Amino acid sequence: MANLVQELNSLDFSVYIGGPMQAAIKAQHDASMSQVSFIKEVGFEGTGATSKLRYVDFVYKKTVPNPVQGNETPVQSQVTLSVPLLSMLTIPALRIDEMTIDFNAKLNSVETQNVSSEFQGSASLSAKFWKVKFNASASYKKTNSSTSTTEKTYTLGVHVKAVNDELPAGLARIMDMLEDAIVANSTPVTP
Question: Is pTM, for the whole model, over 0.70?
C-alpha cells in the first residue's frame, strides 16, 4: 500500500490540472485576438494610417414634404443611407464562463505469492549372494514464486462552458458612436 501512496504522490498535478487551465487561458487570448482581427479586417478599408471606416450604402426612395414654401404636394426624394458596417454585425466576443476539471486516479495493486514445498525420497535395499548392496536416495524441492502487479488508470475530464460575452465597455461606446455616424442624404427626384 505504501507504493500506491508514493505512486499517487509522484503524479504531476501541475500537468493534469495546470495544462487544461493554460489551454483555457490561451483560448481566451485567441478569442480576444480574433475579435481584434475581425474588427480590422471587416470594419475598415486600407491599412495603417490610411485605413477608413467601411460603410454600407442603402439607396431608396421616400416621399417627403415639398421643400417649396406654400406647395403642399409631397415630392419623391432619393435617400442614401450610409451605415458603418461594424454597427450591423455581431462582433465575436466569446469568453470562458466556467471550467471544471475532473481528475481521477485509480491505482490497483495485486500481490500474489506462491510457496510450494516438495519432498521426495526413496530408498532401496538389495542383496546379492554374499554381498549386501544398499542404495539410498533423497531429494528435496522448494519452489518460491512471487507476482506483483500494479494497474494504473488516470482519467481527465475537462468541461468548458463558453458564452457570447457582452462587448467590452470601450468597444460598446465606440459602437454607439458609430450608430451616431449613420448619415442620410436626401436628393429630390425629378419626374
Answer: no
